[in-house]
Amino acid sequence: QVQLVESGGGSVQAGGSLRLSCAASGLTSRRYCMGWFRQAPGKEREGVATIDSAGTTSYADSVKGRFTISQDNAKSTLYLQMNSLEPEDTAMYYCAASGVSWWELCDRIAFGYWGQGTQVTVSS
Hints:
Strand content: over 45%
Order of helices and strands: EEEEEEEEEEE
Largest sheet: 7 strands, mixed
Shape: globular
Structural class: mainly beta
Helix content: under 10%
Radius of gyration: 14 Å
Distance between the termini: 40 Å
């Protein structure tokens, strides 16, 4: 059973930084995708960034150059470093994971496992 537990959310002022963490357990696939998604009140969930087991990353245009996704395989932890935060980044942030086949791209798949989310609030 895959479990994902996010932490690191909070409240910051615009221009500030936060680092989200996602502790993963039970993910045994040789190739996998992990990602960060967010959902603001009244809006649809959107992808923020993804990374695969080889370290290949992808980002939403709205966060390119400000956010960095990374993983520590030894700690089975996924990170999202968020810099230059804007009020528009305010949302619940979710970690997601899924085992994938070699031809699948992380920004095209439907993730099978989700965490409970961590709130990020950016004030102007």
